[in-house]
Amino acid sequence: MENLFGICYRTVIVLVFLFFVTKMIGKKQISQLSLFDYIVGITIGSIAADISLDLEKNLIAGLISLFIFCFAAYLISIITSKSIKARRFFTGVPTVLVENGKIIESGLRKTKIDTNELLAEARIAGYFDLSEIDYAIMEINGSISFLPKEKEKPATKKDMKIKSDKSGLIANVIIDGNYMENNMKAINKDKKWLDHEMKIQGYENYDDILLATVDSNDKLTVYKKNVKPDKNTVLE
User: Which domain holds residue 54?
Assistant: First the structure.
């Protein structure tokens, strides 16, 4: 019973202390957290749990340690708000994944995501056809922002009262240079048809292709490997 009382007492003290120090650091939604913010949050939680449950730990020393860590995080947040170089170091910069409709493979490698994950994020954002996207940028918090091509913006079709044909699902027929046989069968196409369509567009080697898709109108869209980002694209 004494241990239970001690845990409750320490937990309340730590909770009140955390309330004030986290107000000092500032509040952000989970979706707005950068990698550094995420690490700070996990560490603070770990320290708080440790000094709350371990009765052998000195409570005052634990609170001091927690305060020092929170103050350091607060200090870094002030520095990053005033220094671009510090902001780049601690929080990073956005990364271009798709530029001018082309997949930037170096961007995928840098952010540690693959083609399938990019396609999944695009579908979540409402883009089932990657050819509708002009730019895709991974923000510093890990979310991906998509900019549709001008002709694909919903407002344009709605304002002009243009009726659109049903686009249907997009079949991924080549992923990372690999021929997707099951997906081809699902759209009633074979490798001979794909090779012919690729040859029309000037492609012969699958190894040079990062992604190839076929829409419901049998339109083949190819995204090459090793496409370099435009040097004029600057993100901060």
Answer: 2-90
